[in-house]
Amino acid sequence: MMADTSMVNSGMRNRSGGGFARIVKKALVVVALLSVPSLMALNVCLGVSVFKLGSEVESLKKEKSALIKSNRAYQIEAASLASPERVESLASSVIGMAVPTDRQVVLVKRVAKGASRPAPATSQATADPRAPGRS
Length: 135
Prior knowledge:
The protein is an all-alpha fold. The chain has a domain at 10-97. The protein is 68% helix and 0% strand. The protein contains 2 helices and no strands. It has helices at 2-81, 84-95.
């Protein structure tokens, strides 16, 4: 009688153990079937993101190139606007300034701190080598 009971118990164990394994297998199949399309969709989304970022990088490279080109043009324009010849021309024609005469130029010498001051200097005429009409 004991043998029959142990057989019945072992048979129940096999069935319950087999049922659990079957449930686990079905769950794994369901997870696999759901994860494959999800991973494929994720791959497509990442591919689209990479494409968008690549086109944005190309657009930014073109913009950078255009900005460098315009910056160079502005630097050339700034250099020409600040040229001494242009400034002198505008100063004389627009503002009415003139090149100073020899009597209008006074040299001032700096004295180091603590040094004795020299006697007051008389006005000295200097010739500006850049000024037109001077030798």
